[in-house]
Every structure is written in C-alpha cells, then in structure tokens.
Amino acid sequence: MSIEIPKTLDDLPNSSPRWVGRGVPRVEDPHLVTGRTEFIDNVVLPGMLHAAILRSPIAHARIRSVDTSQAEKLAGVFAVVTGEDAKRWSLPSPTMPEEWGTHCMATDKVRYVGEPVAAVAAVNRYVAEDAIELIAVDYEPLEPVADAVKAVGPDGPLVMEEKGTNVMLQRVFTWGEVDEAFADADRVFTEKFRWHRLGANPMETFGVIAQWDPVDESLTLRASVQSALHFGLGRAAVLGLASNKVRVIPHPHGGSFGGKGGTRGCDVAALLTRKAGGRPVKWIEDRSEYLTGGGSQSWDRHYEVSLAVKNDGRVTGLHVKLLDDMGATGEAFGAVNTVKPLACFTGPYAIPVARYDLTLVATNKLPQSPYRGMGPPPHNYVLEQMMDIAARGLDMDLAEIRRVNFIPKGAFPYTIPSGNEYDSGDYEAVLDKALELADYPALRDQQAAARAEGRCVGIGVVSAIEPGVFDWNAYAVVGAQGTGVPEGATVSIDVLGKITIRVGFAMEGQGQYTLATQLVADYFCVGFEDIKVVVLDTHSAPPAFGPGGSRLGVALTGAVLGACERLKAKLVKVAAGLFQMDASQVDLVDGNLVAKDVPGVEMPMAAVAGTMLGRSDLLPPGVDPRPEATYVWTAPGRTEADEQGRAKTYLTAAQAVHVVMVELDEETGLVEILEYCVVDDCGTRLNPATVEGQTEGSIAQGIGAALLEEYVYDDQAQILTSSFMDYLLPTVNEVPAMKKGIVVTPSPFTPLGAKGCGEGAMHTTPAAVLSAINDALLPLGVRANEVPASPNRLWTLIHDAKPQAAGEGPR
Amino acid sequence: MTTQQTISVTVNGTTHEALVDPRTTLADFLRGELALTGTHVGCEHGVCGACTVLLEGRSVRSCLMLAVQADGTSLTTVEGMEEDGNLHPIQLAFVEEHGLQCGFCTPGFLMTVRELLENSPDPSDEEIRDALGGQICRCTGYQSILRSVKLAAAKLQGAPLAGTTESP
Prior knowledge:
- The complex is a heterodimer.
- Helices cover 28% and strands 23% of the residues of chain A.
- By secondary structure, chain A is α+β, with helices and mostly antiparallel strands.
- Chain A has a seven-stranded mixed sheet with strand order 3-5-1-12-9-10-11. In chain A, strands 7-15-14-13-8-29 form a six-stranded mixed sheet. In chain A, strands 18-26-27-28 form a four-stranded mixed sheet.
- In chain A, β9 and β10 form a beta hairpin.
- Residues 805-811 of chain A have low confidence and may be disordered.
- By secondary structure, chain B is an alpha+beta fold.
- In chain B, α3 (106-119) crosses α4 (125-132).
- In chain B, β1 (5-11) and β2 form a beta hairpin.
- The interface between A and B is large, with 61 and 61 residues.
C-alpha cells in the first residue's frame, strides 16, 4: 500500500494544526520532575545479583595468571568470570575496520587502563567490590603504545602483535583535480592542529540487568541503551546466540550523546548471569569506570590542513590530512567518527575539489566511541580555522570570506565533492541575520576600544553544516554495510477513541515522545491526554534505530505520520462500508470520518474503531479488523558509496552561523565569553522549545570541548582524568547567555520539511570559540591550534609571545 | 565486616527505622532500602550534584554521606515535593520552561532550588548561578534552568505567571 506522508503542516487532515510547530510542554516531564521515570538502576528483580568489574591498572601487559579462588570463597559471591569464560561463551567484538577486536574481558594481555579482566556477581555491589579486591592478577608489563604519531612507524611495540602494525587503516580519498587546484591557486595556506580526546559524559552512566534463561539459552537485557535493536544484534553476535534469543528492553536513560557505550559491561553481565545459573545480574557502571573504560572518549586527532585560495577569497581546494588515535580496538565506532566528515567535508562552502588523507592508529588507550556530532566537530574546527587564516592572509573580513564561498541559495540540492547532497539552505540569510543579531560592527568597535585599553578581546564568526538523518552508507569506507536505517511506529485506537503510539526506542531527553504525541494529536484531532506513548522491547517493536546521527525527529515524524496515514486508510474503508459508499467518497476530517459530498453523514473515529474491534461481521471483506497501523520509515534516495566513498548519505543539511566575542585573561589564560550569538536553519521546527533546548545544550557541550574537556594520558598511556575533578564539564558559570535567531528553509526531502537538529551547535561552537580566541591573540602574533584551549595552554602561548605580560604565571 | 546499626530517619514526613551497614551511603540507603529512587547517582564523588537531598532543610550530597550519619534527622527528597498530588511550583516551573531534557540531574536541581528559594525568595541572577554552581546538567546548557528558577520564584511569590511554553 503506497502512502503519501504529509510534506507540510497544511497537509495534515485537520482544520488547523494546534500542536505541531509549537513549543508545547513535554509529555515526558511530569514523570521526570517527580523522580518517577524508570531509569535502569531503579529496577529491582527477584533474586537479582550485582556485578563489579576488575579492570586493568596498566596500559599494556601480558596476563600471566588470574587467581579468583579467594573471591569465590567470599560470602555472598555467586559467580566470578574471567577471560577464560569470555573465550568459552563469547567471541571477539566485531569492529570497524574489521578484525581489530578483542573479547569483552582480557584473555592474553591487557591493552588499555580500564580494560575488564575479571568480574563478580554478588548479593550487593558492596560485596561484589570486596570480592574483586580479592582477585590476584599477575601482569608482565609491556612497553605501551602511548603516542599515535610514533606508533605508525615500523619499530616499537604493537597493540596487536598478530597484525604486524598499529595502522588500522590508511587511505587517501581524492575528489576532483586537487593537485591542479593547488597548482593554480594564488595563495596556499597550511596549518597543523591538535584536537585532544574528550567525550559524551551523560549524567547517567550505562546500566544493564542481564538475565540468562538456561532452558532455551536465551538472554534478556534491560538496559539504558540508545539503539536497542542494534545493540541486541551486536550482543547476539558477540555472545554467539541466535538474534531471536537476545531480547533487549530499552529503559529511559539519562542522556547519551552517542557515548552511552556499555557493550563490554553488558557482555560481562551476560557471562555472569549465565555462570550464576540464570539469576539476573545488574551492572551499573560507576563514573570512574565510565571515564576510564566506558563509552566516554572520542576524537584524538592530529591534523595538517591546506587551503588553495584565489586572491578574491574563493577557496578552490581543500586538503585535510588526519591521523586519529583510535585506542586499542575498533569495537566502538571510533572509525565512523573519522569518516562522517565526508557528509560535510567542505562545510557550507562551494569548494570544488578536496582530498582526505586518513590514518587510523591503534594505541594502548580506551577505544574511541561516538560523541555528539560523530566526528565532524573537529573537522569543522580545522576548516573554519583555515578560513580565518586565509581571510587574514588576504586581508578580508571573517564574515566576508565566508559569504564569498557560501553555496548559493539557488544551487540546492547541491552535491559536495565528497559525494553527499545538501537538501536546501540560504546561508547568506543566516549570516546576515547573525551579524545583525550580534551587531557585528558594534562588536568590532568594542573590541577596538578594549584593545586600546590593553585587553585581549577577540571575535569569531564561523559557519558549519549539521548533517542530519544518517545512513549506514556514510560509513561504508570503514566497513558499515548497506543503506537504510529504519524507524517504525505503530498507532492504534481503542474502543473509546484513545490512541496508543508504540515505538522501539527509550526516552533519552530530546522530547521525542512529545513529538510523536504532537503529530498524532494533530492528525486525529485529539488532546494530549488521549494519547499514550509506549516503548516496546526488541521482540515486539517495529524496526527502530532510535536517536542518533541527528535523525530521530525527522525519522519519527515519517514513521508516525506514515502509520497515521495507513490507519486513516483503514478507517476510511470501514466507514465507507458502513456508509455504503466507495472509499473515495469518505475522508478523515478533524477526527471524524465524513462523507465528502453528503453533509451530516459522519462518524467519530472512535465509533469506527469500536465497530472494527467489536463487530467484525459488519466490516467490508478483506479489511483487517484491528484499528491500528504500522509504518517503517527510511530516508529516500540514499545511494551506495563509490570507490572514493562518495554517496548520498545524510538526508538533510542544517546550517548555522555563530558570532562569539571572548576576552582572554593574560594573567591566568582563562577565557570569558562576552557575547554568544547563534542563528541556525534546521528547516521546519516541529517543537521550537525542544529545538532551542538542543541548541542551548549543544552550545554548552561545545564550550566544554573548546575550553575545558580533555582526557589526559601520560607517556605510559596511564589515564590521569578518572573523576569529574579532573575531567571538567561546563557548569552554569561557564555557559553564557545566548542570543538566538532562526531562518527556516524547509527540507524538500523530509516529512513536514524538518531537518536533523539534535547534534546542533556541537558542530559549530568549538570552531567559533577558537576563532574568537585566535582573533584575540592576533596582536601577539600567536595562534591557539590545540583544543581544548585550556588556561595552561593559553597562558603558555601568551607567555612565550609576550613574557612580560604573563608575569609569574598561574600558581 | 562491621556490625550493622539501627538508624531512624524521617524522610518526606515518614519515619523509618532500619538496620544498615555502616558503610552504606545515604544515596544507596534512600534508593535501595527505602525504594526512593528519585534521587539519582551521577558520579559518586560529590561533583555532579545529581544525588542532592535536603537534610534539615540544607542541601547535602547523599553520595558523600553515610546513612548512619543521617540517624535522627529529617530528610526531603524529590518524592516529597508534590503537594496533594499536585506538582510543586518549582517542578511546574521546570516543566513550563523546559528546564530539563533527560531529567536525570533534575531531582538534584529541584532540591537545590528549593533550598535557594526558601532562603532567598527573590534571588538575583548571581545568587542563582552561585546556588546552581555545584549541579551539573549535561543536556540543557543551563539557560532554561535559569529561566525555570526565575519562574519558580515568581510562582512562589504568587505571581500569576506562565512559562514560555505554548498551549493551543
């Protein structure tokens, strides 16, 4: 049955939309503000045990022996597992690139600090923690692979000896006549950059309750997972179980941002419940485990970037050389981080040709995970720094060089050199609005006045693309196969006209249940109180990926409206039978089934649903009597990648311009944000208040990335940041007030014209803050090319450039 | 293992007597023994503030306190905020101003704001930032939380205000 999903709000079958497009309160909130939401650690099952995991204290060592005998004797301990159990009951993790995986617990050697070595299930977490202290591991320390740049060379230790190299992947992608562009350029600018490890840190860590059924050898996982279906398939593969023998019940979770991780801990819990004869085993990752061994770390990059530029400011070529420190394995999508930039390689600019020289290196650090943005934020940062460098080299204004290079409004849909297609946009309008909102000339005057007083003040003007609605083909070059990422929803009406929406993803914080409710309320002209959103487990849910890759707002809209359309078609058919008319003569209007040409002949939707549920004898032949329908939406028009990785990947391209003014304290190296302005275009705003929340939250994460957040490893690959006292998250005192503006160019390719917007400003803010810092540093003749631009780094830069200014230095 | 101790604590007006291990944290006691799972644990080292509860009206980190230290005291948790089944004005303000996303940190914020507004019914921006400086939210970027606190203060002072969310 082919259906037409509404393209605009006017296409909804009601007189006027009342909910979609408004910043309505969220249906999730009453449970959350009263502490009633069922986060995984709230769940208690009969007979449940609690797990604790023993983790490696050293980065690289051979395991001579693991002695668990004392732990096994401790009262209250039910099961102890080690690498031997992992070998017996599981396989090495699948990876990207392929065959860079290990078991969930170390078998032959440990490869990073925090790697699981053994685990215990006991009556409570306290006893479990006591027990792991009784496990004796004999390590033979090996020289660690601590420096990714050195690790590329032929000498030195190897993370995986059997590979014969630490290089996981080395590829050069060339899109167009790049050498010619650089040869023909008036100017070529080249710079090196360093982006240090940082990561997601949702306030809730990962948690799972695993329960093994020894009779039919199946596994039930209640977990705080972002994508239950995908997670379950992965666990089945690792645990050697049939895919229908792993059932995942996704629980609401306290944020993810891509970095919920948890696969190893989940697999360990699965081994423990199996060893404990099927007693449920809860494992809640603690914060220190998350920071050192969880889904916490992303993007550890060394860049060298060149820009070919004409004297009029047009950028004619881009060459990006990236070496990324993947950590010990390829198990957690780290490589995906490095190839997602193909979806937006040349940013919002009409740069005709580009080259990407990509090297992925294994080291003895935690394997990289996804984080909001999934890799482009550092790429956008280096591209935007290069735009600034070119502007200064040509004596152009920061805003003007961007304007000169923007993809023009009339050029959409526009295919970028790396193959992705941008759907729509009006980048100059966004820039103009941002400059106006910030009062850019006035900011420049303020800066001049501040500089005259000897203050170190700078302004950044940057732009970036947020690719929205991911497709697996975007990551084909590192081994993700195929196209299509499904999102399904089932909408059903009960005998009293109440509506249930069933989905396959758990609440995560973006307000998606509210969005689903808004859509159905408008479609069937009912109130919020008439609708309930229910999350199903992987045995019963329609195919669903859930949030990720700035997709769910768009994908869920497609799924819910598709289900509504199908349900409407059923209701129309039944009503037509009851009216003794042809279905073409009946329509759904404001929640009633009406005969189009016969005034007064109509039935409320609830009455039609009631007839279907109670009087199947009255239904026309061939009509399914259930007043419910399912639709599974996938992004249309996606293509397979060619040999250079080019494909139509992400469906939408939101765009933003940020204008930021900062002041550096030369005495301390601290940065204060004086002004923050953002204008973005993410198409139709289905709930402006939740979109605004994504913008504000992602600006805060971007500020953390730019100024504070860094996982520090020493030269023995020992992690030095294992608590929130070392790994600094932005507090209310680091996040400034923001001026916000919007431009709306609806996507021609999506339901209702919305574009992906969840990653939001993470794509733009780090670049914007660094641009402003470098503008401030301009009179000193130095550049901050390392992220985060932490006080120690900035102070050193200032001190080296201008020793008298920095005095004695920070204490 | 150390001998268990009997403690008596009053939580949200109900007095509980319980036998606890001396090493049990107050957070684990509230969540595990009393099934008051609205208090969340985000870091277990006193930085994130998610586990904040009120002890004799003062905010404390329940992850850094032992249950035995709370013996004989009166506590308030997020479960104690509703009045006659209605959301407390602070809770209402957070809903109306979208002062939460994933909501995991929210109970800690609510407790902290309740303490702030009881001591300073009309706080300045600086006072609000000071009070919230020990609470981490990873989702919102804090701007909607600041708006929520302002709205909560106004509601508690009886102003007939609504938030910026829209209704049809």
